[in-house]
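User: Good morning. I'm curious how nicotinamide-adenine-dinucleotide would be positioned relative to this chain. Could you predict the structure with it bound?
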Amino acid sequence: MKIAIIGTGYVGLPTGVGLAEFGNDVVCIDKIEQKITDLNAGKITLYEDGLEELFIKNKNSGKLKFTTDMESGVEQADVVIIAVGTPTHPITKEADLKYIYAAAGELAQYLAGYTVIAVKSTVPVGTGDNVEDIIKTSNPNADFDVVSLPEFLREGFAVEDFFNPDRIVIGANSERAKAKIAELYTPFNGKTNFLYVARRSSEAIKYAANSFLAVKVHYINEMADFCERSGADIDEVAKGMGLDSRLGAKFLQPGPGYGGSCFPKDTTAMVSMAKGHGVDLNIVETAVKQNALRKIKMAERICNAVKEVEKPTIGVLGLTFKGGTDDVRESPAMEIIQEIIKSERVSVKAYDPKGLDNAKSILTDGIYYAKNAYDACKGTDLCVVLTEWVDFKEIDLAKLKEVMNTPSIMDLRNLLDRDTVRNAGFKYSRIGEADGN
Ligand code: NAD
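Assistant: Good morning! Here's the predicted structure, ligand included:
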C-alpha cells in the first residue's frame, strides 16, 4: 500500500519505519525542514532502540521517503496517517488541535482517489468529526473517510511495540474504511487483538487508558509515601499487589512522579474534555494536581538531604522522562532540577546517556552537563538517580565513591540494589522505605 504520514516525530517515525518494513511505500512528511534534511541524509532524528538499523535499511531500499512537500506524499496515498502533536493548550488546558486541523486543511486539496485519513495523534472525542468537516469544506469532491487509529506505543520500546502491539484499536464509521485499515494491518492477523469500534469510542479509549495508567502510577506513589511513614516497604508491597492478576504488576513502580509527552498532557486534556461534557473526573483531577506537587516535594527532599552543607553540589543521573529514550518533554528530572536551582543555594551537575542535547535546549543556566555519570558526581555531596537507565544500575560503586565528596545516594527510581549500595559504604535512601524521608 502507499502510505503518507504527516508528522515525523516519536510516533510518526517509528510507524513509518515499521510500515515500510512490512513492504509498504511510505512517505513521511514534516514541516521542520532540518528534520527532513537530516532524515534524507541518513541521520536519525530521535533515539529508539533498534530504530536506526530499520530506518537505514528501508530508506536505502526506497520504501521509506521523507519530504516537506505535502502534495507529493498525499496524492498517491491509500492511507494518510496524521501523527502531529496535540500539546496542552496553555490557557484552556484542553488538547490544542491546531496542528491536527492545519494538517487536515493542508492535505485536503491533494486527495486523489479514495483515501482513508487515519488520526493516530491522541485527540479529544469528536475530533474525527471536525477533521471530516474541514476536509469536506476545503475539497467537496474528495472521496475519503476519517478513522481514529490511536497509538499505544511506549517511548523507549517503540520498535518492539510497533511489531508486537497488545491490541490494535480501529475507530471507523464506514465499512470501506474498516476494510482499508484491515488491509494495512494484515501482517498482524492472528498475532494481536483487533478491536473495531465507533470513531468516538476509539478516541475515548486512548484517553481513558492513559488516564488510568497515570492514576495507577500516582496511586503507587501515594502508597510509597504511606510506606515511608508506616515502616512498610513499597517494593515488597508493590510485589504483593502485582501478583494479583486483577491488578497486574506493571505501572506499580514508585518514583518521583509521572512525566513525559503523554501522561501529563493526556490527563489534563481528559479532565477538561470531561468538564466540557459536564462530568467531573475527580480521581484523574486529583492525580494531575498531586503529581505536579510531588515533583516539588522531591526537590525539597533533595535540598533537605544537603541542608547541612554550606554550598552543596548534587550529581543528577538521568534527565529523560524514563530510560531508553532521548525525550525530556515534561520529564520529572527536568522539573525537579528547575525547582532545585531556583534557590541558587544548590549547584547541579547532570548526566544522561541519550537526553543531554534535548535537555540543553530547555535548560542551560546553572547546570553543568557532564560527560558521564562519574563526571556528574565528581566533587558532589549527593548523587540523585532521577531516571531508570540500565546504565546507572551497572554503575561502578567503588569508582563513584572515589569521586564524590560524600558517599551519599538518593535513588528516586528505586533502581539500585540497596544492600549492594549500602555494603559499598554509601548512605542510601530510596522511595517508599522508612529511611527515605
Ligand atoms: P512529536 O512532537 O514528536 O512529533 C510531531 C511532529 O509533527 C513534529 O515533528 C512536527 O514538526 C510535525 N508537524 C506538526 N504539524 C505538521 C504539519 N502540518 N505538517 C507536517 N508535520 C507537522 O509528537 P509525538 O510525540 O510523535 O506525538 C504525536 C501524537 O501522538 C500526539 O498526539 C501524542 O499525544 C500521540 N502519542 C504519542 C506517543 C509517544 O510516545 N510520544 C504515544 C502515543 C500517542
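The pocket of nicotinamide-adenine-dinucleotide is lined by residues 6-12, 29-32, 35, 83-86, 99, 102-103, 106, 121-122, 151, 153, 155, 261-262 (CB under 6 Å). The chain has two domains: 2-197, 294-430.
Let me know if you'd like a different ligand tried.
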